[in-house]
Amino acid sequence: MTAQLTTRRLGATGPSVSSPGLGCMGLSGAYGQTDDDQSVRLIHSYLDAGGNFLDTGDFYGSGHNEALIGRALGGRSREEVVLSVKFGALRGPGGASVGFDARPAAMQNFLTYSLQRLGVDHVDVYRPARLDPDVPIEDTIGAIAEMVEKGYVRHIGLSEVGAETIRRAAAVAPISDLQIEYSLLTRTIEDEILPACRELGIGITAYSVLSRGLIGGSGAREGALPMMPRFQEGNLEHNEALVARVREIAAEKGATVAQLAIAWVAAQGEDVLPVIGARRPEQIESMIASNAVSLDAGDLARLDDLVPRDAVRGDRYPTPLMADLDSER
């Protein structure tokens, strides 16, 4: 199967980006050990194939991920890439979460270090990774808007927030997109969040499209995966059986289950951008090949029947982390 990357726009006001986008979190140890040289080759493979959307966070590997991307971008044109950066999550020396900070002054500090590590003079999309319960979203978005005016940021994004917060943020400044989990197994955004974004002209950058490897993964359970409820005993067997139901459709399409799942997210609308994590350069070609998978209304209906919306077992994060998600309230 061969295909090319396609182009989508992040909402009514955001940049044009390649689809699928490349999520870089897994290149900094989130799901097991990685090799920096191989990771650089992976990023180069994506860019050389015509990709331009790289998603990262300043807390991925406590700065390692941004430095890695900065290394990979060395010698390339700044206009060749759209950098999406999340901020605000606080990490201790051992990597444990120690809180969240979206105060305007803290945001400026985080942005300064991100620009340094990435080796760039601006970030294309800048977004708080979560809602800070101690800081009004209006204050955070207003402060990022000031960075837009000064040229350090091009567009403002959101991540894992609910419809009410989205509306409050959009009343302050244009929002390009909301980054949020969306997949065959995770569809709660369809109730209120997705309609609100469409009403306001805000795009969706969908992450965990493969449900952290539950869909089409290698079967390895490294890094943070054993702590995830959907991978724990009882839930895992049920969820793997759910995924197995779609193998026949994937085979009919000449695709892998993972490619089918990426195509499903892409088929939810031109305003939805699948963001796919990869750890090996050869995965880039397979990721791009998902664009060759065509799903019509009948295919989508069959998938809905095989994997009902609420059939998955287990929350998508451990209980303490679920409590931090404004999108789940």
TrEMBL record:
UniProt GO molecular function: oxidoreductase activity
Lineage of the organism: Bacteria, Bacillati, Actinomycetota, Actinomycetes, Pseudonocardiales
Annotated protein name in UniProt: Aryl-alcohol dehydrogenase-like predicted oxidoreductase
Signal peptide location: none
Keywords attached to this entry: Oxidoreductase
Matches recorded under InterPro entries: Aldo-Keto_reductase (IPR050791), NAD(P)_OxRdtase_dom_sf (IPR036812), NADP_OxRdtase_dom (IPR023210)
Entries under PANTHER family matching the protein: AFLATOXIN B1 ALDEHYDE REDUCTASE, ALDO-KETO REDUCTASE YAKC [NADP(+)]
NADP-dependent oxidoreductase domain: residues covered: 21-306
Transmembrane stretches, start-end: none
Gene3D superfamilies: NADP-dependent oxidoreductase domain
Lineage top rank: taxon: Bacteria
UniProt key word Oxidoreductase: yes
GO cellular component labels: cytoplasm
